[in-house]
Amino acid sequence: MLYLGNTALALEILALVGATALLLYTKKSESACRGFAGGVAYFAIVLSLLAMLCTLYRAFRYGGVEMFGAYGRHESMEGMTPEERKCPMMERMMKSHGAPEEPHE
């Protein structure tokens, strides 16, 4: 699956740019809804900054796991240590999947 953090970050940057443009437009304009538009702009700026922080945190915390396939480790038992394979649950699972039996020490 494609890592969607890049797309989310791009959309958040677009939202930040749009909100900043709205804020600059309200500073120049003399319309009656200037206060409301300014409030919406500030709200959108704060919301997009918080969303960017969450996206960046998730990208740095979990991004490598998705990109490098560490979730797929359970699908093959090649990376497991012999101690991990000795538990009864793993022995039943290895028998049901037709994995070669290892001699017990």
Give a brief rundown of this model:
It contains four helices and no strands. It is mostly helical and 105 residues long. The protein has a domain at 5-72.
Helix-strand blueprint:
Elements (H helix, E strand, L loop, with lengths): L4 H24 L5 H35 L13 H4 L2 H9 L9
Helix pairs in contact: 1-2
Explain how this protein is built:
With 105 residues, this protein is mostly helical. The chain has a domain at 5-72. Helices cover 69% and strands 0% of the residues. It is built from four helices and no strands. The protein has helices at residues 5-28, 34-68, 82-85, 88-96. Helix 1 (5-28) runs antiparallel to helix 2. It is rod-shaped, with a radius of gyration of 26 Å.
Spell out the key features of this protein.
69% helix, 105 residues
In whole angstroms, how far apart are the ends? 41 Å
Give the percentage of residues in beta strands. under 5%
Number of helices in the DSSP assignment? 4
CA-atom Rg in angstroms: 26 Å
Poorly predicted ranges: 71-75
Tell me the structural class: mainly alpha
Helix fraction by DSSP (H/I, runs of at least 4):
55-70%
Main β-sheet description: none
Mean pLDDT across all amino acids: 78
* Overall spatial form: rod-shaped
Number of strands: 0
